[in-house]
């Protein structure tokens, strides 16, 4: 597995009726579907036909203030992913849980359970929460600051991983004759007592099929990238251009060595929003059609939120006030995207209106409109030239945008031999070419399976 | 619905390979199945063929100290019930969540999400946690005391219900032309700031299909019964005999009036463990076969745990030390079952060995071995004579015990006209004949649907 030839990885990232903020207003998109499990099940069947590695559900624990203008993101990830596990057999299932407003025992257990239900397809997108609205649903006060959140996250992840290891792989004997279900000597209390948590363990579930569900992260700050290098196995990132992607890729991969890790142990997947047409003209028309549905006041809301500044105070058709925003840069929250937008506006000399439009399809992720060949070309280039190990595929509108991607771009990538034509393994670790981790409590060698 | 003729309700309560603690050692029971979703899916298909009202999964957040002797109870409830929602269309799904070691925003959201996924079949078994092992996985110290736990539970339930109401039923407009997804004036912050929680709201999901998922509880103490009368819609209970059941039933129903509630607004479901044979002799043989697999040291563990006393210090074949145990009665924990066991031992003058045997099938719940007609007779009697509105059906071994119940006892109850031959509604509220609650924020009348 580990030694086989390098392949591109494709993760499907879905939100509401698609990533373009106005997608839900398009013909063929059904805003009332976003609370229905069958809607997601249909998308996932398509993704599995396309042999995609995984599905990702982002999450936060607060209602966005822009709910007037934009459909809900999705249902709750643990419940929805578990439901989706049942109609599928291969595709990985990546859920989000925040280390700031959850407890490690619940998180360890729900991911372990999802890993059992899906027979080895669970992954955890580790986030620290970025908005005060979430904080007010849990704590009655604002978010802890950025570095404090990351300290807590490290302890949290450590506890969760030890809980996943708390049963050795061979702990269950299920010996009906002798009446021994499990060997208590192979089940370990973790006896954690730290700055933020006190957790005795063991987990009340056996070690999950993957040993440990896969760890995903999307840190963009210095602290975030260091965290990824130390603890993540997959990194999501938003990059405006291949050049930016190359810088990020080199940066994060270079950090691995100091943790004794090799570059293949961490996969970097930038977001990629493709507006697909059989001809370039058709693709551009679709883009115009999407942009036509944008609501300016929503765009202003969104930017104001991100920048923590009332953006309606600035003229729509004059340049984004990048100097003012840069001075404010020490905002406690979504650092990554904040800097990305300011940089984009500076480089392309965008007006406020243009920034709204340019970020409407993909919130700062790379976005292009083109033919399947053009899109496959761009993906292959990023992948060959050190900007990506694969992509977070972000259909701008659903379900059609996904059907076009799976029906037209995937075969193009398969024909080029850079993407699998069939699943080779059954677990998400196998799709990504990640080793099943040894159990820290187990006898060395016994629990590693390639 | 509300006015139609009174019917018996049947909830399926499953644990591991069945409720008898030695079930997993029987031929036909597969201990390795308890971590597989397909195993539960198969059981649920059988239950739905039997038109049962619901499935119940009990839960705690700690590994039982007796894992050597007995299979795991199940996977994690939110993930497992969501998976099970997908292969079924009618049966209700009751999950357990503790108000002592969870947060109301997560609980409100996961049940709301399950209610969407199942299209109106979710219910919450509200528990306060009863063992210190759970406490040590969350808090590094022992359980808060009983009354403190119930105070926290009241506040918790109140917050959860307000979150479920935080979107009015008509809040989603999904107006693609105007670009209005939801009407912010119909979505309400709950602004809760209480003794235990500070939660601003609103929930980040619309009001669930049932308005509010059904509330289930199993209080046995004075405080617990008062809580049930005030807040529960379904009550589980363990009763040794019909006479005890009648006392409990009358007691709890009589408490409703002071909260302005009528007796039909709360359904009482005692546990019922049936060992079924085509002849009485066959049923008794099955019981002997089950008991043959009991492990004495497991039984001692179990009793020691419940009584928080080392029971191996007492001779196996001498009477249970009921006086000693009664003096200890102020144990901070499982009060209900503690008292039940002491009472059973006192009344039936049981030795320690006999108490182990008598409680092995159903942990204090009513248990009988008999023919389908005898079992239906007993159930009908409890139901007609004021001991029950229905039952928590507890198959002693799985899957065969459930197949026998659905194949033989259910048709007997249907023939007598006391149990439905077909589902009449689609939601769990409809199965139980419980009204869909009006939204406290909505316009009166609009949100009530029979
Ligand atoms: C593709 C992608 C998905 C993300 N998903 C979430 C999410 O679901 N929930 C969340 O709170 N943050 C999410 N984030 C934010 C990141 O977790 C992270 O906080 C952000 O990139 C800023 O980096 P920093 O934490 O190092 O400052 C996501 C970021 C990216 C690029
Ligand atoms: C059928 C039944 C199921 C129960 N399920 C759970 C459970 O899943 N988790 C839990 O912590 N307690 C459970 N309990 C315990 C009750 O919630 C309650 O704590 C117990 O009956 C003692 O009552 P009290 O809390 O009023 O003292 C259950 C009790 C019964 C009778």
TrEMBL record, chains A, B:
Chain sites annotated for binding FMN: 59, 96, 146, 150, 221
One GO MF term attached to the UniProt entry: oxidoreductase activity, acting on paired donors, with incorporation or reduction of molecular oxygen
InterPro entries: Diverse_substr_monoxygenases (IPR051260), Luciferase-like_dom (IPR011251), Luciferase-like_sf (IPR036661), NTA_MOA (IPR016215)
UniProt keywords, alphabetically: Flavoprotein, FMN, Monooxygenase, Oxidoreductase
UniProt record similarity statement: Belongs to the NtaA/SnaA/DszA monooxygenase family.
The keyword Oxidoreductase is assigned to this record: yes
Name of one Pfam family that matches: Bac_luciferase
Cross-referenced PANTHER family: ALKANESULFONATE MONOOXYGENASE-RELATED (PTHR30011), C2H2 FINGER DOMAIN TRANSCRIPTION FACTOR (EUROFUNG)-RELATED (PTHR30011:SF16)
Protein's recorded name: LLM class flavin-dependent oxidoreductase
Upper classification of the organism: Bacteria, Bacillati, Bacillota, Bacilli, Bacillales
Family annotation (SUPFAM superfamilies): Bacterial luciferase-like
NCBIfam families named in the record: FMN_nitrolo
Domain Luciferase-like, first and last residues per copy: 36-387
CDD domains the UniProt entry points to: Nitrilotriacetate_monoxgenase
Key word Oxidoreductase present: yes
């Amino acid at each position: 597995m580990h030694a086989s030839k390098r392949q591109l990885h494709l993760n499907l990232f879905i939100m509401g009726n698609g990533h373009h903020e106005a997608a839900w207003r398009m013909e063929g998109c059904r805003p009332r579907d976003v609370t229905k499990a069958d809607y997601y099940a249909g998308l996932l069947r398509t993704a599995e036909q396309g042999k995609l590695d995984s599905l990702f559900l982002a999450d936060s624990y607060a209602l966005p203030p822009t709910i007037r203008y934009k459909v809900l993101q999705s249902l709750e990830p643990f419940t929805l992913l578990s439901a989706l596990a049942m109609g599928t057999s291969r595709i990985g299932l990546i859920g989000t849980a925040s280390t700031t407003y959850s407890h490690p025992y619940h998180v360890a257990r729900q991911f372990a359970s999802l890993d059992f239900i899906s027979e080895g397809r669970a992954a955890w997108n580790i986030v620290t929460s970025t908005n005060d609205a979430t904080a007010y649903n849990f704590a009655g006060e604002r978010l802890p600051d950025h570095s404090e959140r990351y300290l807590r996250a490290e302890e949290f992840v450590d506890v969760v991983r030890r809980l996943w290891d708390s049963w050795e792989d061979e702990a269950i004997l299920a010996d009906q004759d002798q009446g021994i279900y499990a060997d208590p000597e192979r089940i370990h209390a973790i006896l954690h007592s730290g700055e933020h948590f006190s957790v005795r363990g063991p987990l009340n579930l056996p070690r999950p099929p993957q040993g440990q569900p896969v760890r995903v992260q999307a840190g963009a700050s210095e602290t975030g990238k260091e965290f990824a290098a130390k603890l993540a196995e997959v990194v999501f990132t938003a990059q405006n251009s291949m050049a930016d992607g190359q810088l990020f890729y080199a940066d994060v991969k270079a950090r691995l060595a100091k943790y004794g890790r090799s570059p293949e142990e961490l996969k970097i997947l930038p977001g990629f929003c493709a507006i697909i047409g059989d001809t370039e003209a058709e693709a551009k028309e679709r883009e115009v059609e999407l942009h036509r549905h944008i609501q300016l006041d929503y765009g202003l809301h969104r930017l104001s939120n991100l920048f923590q500044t009332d953006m309606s105070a600035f003229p729509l058709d004059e340049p984004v006030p990048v100097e003012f925003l840069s001075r404010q840069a020490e905002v406690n929250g979504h650092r990554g995207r904040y800097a990305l937008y300011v940089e984009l506006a500076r480089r392309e000399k965008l007006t406020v209106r243009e920034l709204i439009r340019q970020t409407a399809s993909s919130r700062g992720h790379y976005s292009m409109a083109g033919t399947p060949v053009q899109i496959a070309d761009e993906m292959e280039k990023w992948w060959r030239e050190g900007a990506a190990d694969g992509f977070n595929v972000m259909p701008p509108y659903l379900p059609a945008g996904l059907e076009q991607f799976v029906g037209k771009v995937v075969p193009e990538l398969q024909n080029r031999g850079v993407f699998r034509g069939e699943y080779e393994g059954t677990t998400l670790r196998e799709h990504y070419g990640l080793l099943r981790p040894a159990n820290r409590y187990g006898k060395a060698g016994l629990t590693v399976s390639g």
